[in-house]
Amino acid sequence: MKILLCNDDGIHAPGIEALHEALAGIGDLHIVAPDTERSATGHAITIFDPIRTMPVEKDGRHFGTAVDGTPADCVKLAVSFLHKDNPPDLVVSGINFGSNTGISVLYSGTVSAASEAAVLGIPAIAFSLCTYDKPHWETAAYVATEIVKKYAEAPLAPGMLLNVNIPNIPLDKLKGMKASTMGCSRFIERFSEHRDPRGNRYYWLDGDLDLMDDNENADIRVIEAGYVSLTPIHIDLTAHHTMEEVRKWEMVY
Predict the structure, then answer these.
(1) Percent of the chain scored above 90 by pLDDT?
(2) What H or E segment, with its residue span, contains residue 204?
(3) Pairing mode, if any, of strands 185-195 and 124-130?
(4) Residues 6+ positions from 206 with CB-CB distance below 8 Å
(5) Would you state the pLDDT for residue 215?
(6) Which string of DSSP letters, residue by residue, matches 21-35?
(7) How many domains is the chain built from?
(8) How many CA atoms lie within 13 A of 149 on its CB side?
(9) Would residue 201 count as lying in a domain?
C-alpha cells in the first residue's frame, strides 16, 4: 500500500515524524508536506504564485519533499504531478499538534489535506492529538497504526474521509475508540490591538471554543470521556434537511 503523508504543522514537526515511524511497517511511505507551519489555512490553494519544493533529508536519508504552499497544495501537487504515474492508495494527514474537533474542521489545514485527497478520489485520514502541551505522541502513534490497518481492510466510501482526534493521555488510560459526530461549536473571538514602532495599528487574534452541543457522541464530548473520536466527513455541504423550505422560493422565469 502506497501512503502519502502530509500535515499543516510543517515537514519538520514532531507529529509527522511520529506518524512516519508508526506507519513505516505498514506501507510504502512518501512525505509531501509544507516547508513550515501552515496551521489554520483551511482549504486554501496557491494560484497567483509559483509553488517551490525542496528535498528534505534526516539521518542522512531522504525524508520527504517540502513545499512552500498550503496542505491542500501539497496533496494536489503530489497526486496530480509528483506521483501522477503511481498515485497513493491512501493519504494520511497529521499527527496534528492540537485538536481538530467541531468547527475547527473548517479551519484546519490538517483536515483540508485529507479532504483534498477525498476530492481527488483517494481515501484519507486526518489525525490530531488534542493538546498544545506535553504531547503523548506514543498514544497518537499507536492509534494511527491501528486505524490505518483497519482502514486498509475496510475503507470508507469514495469521497469520504475519517477525522480522528486522540485524547492526550497515556496509552494505558485510553478507554477505546468511538464513532462521533462533528460537534456544533464556534469560536468566541478576541482581538488585541497594538502599535508598531511607527505608530501603525496591528492586531492579534485569540479566542475560546464555545461548544453548543450536549450530544454525548459529539467529537469533543467523546474526547473528554477518554475515547478516540472517529468522525466520517464528506464534502457535500448541502443542508439537505432544509431543501423543502428552500423549494418554496423556487421561481420560473
Answers:
(1) 85
(2) strand 201-211
(3) unpaired
(4) 189, 190, 191, 192
(5) 87
(6) HHHTTTSEEEEEEES
(7) 1
(8) 11
(9) no
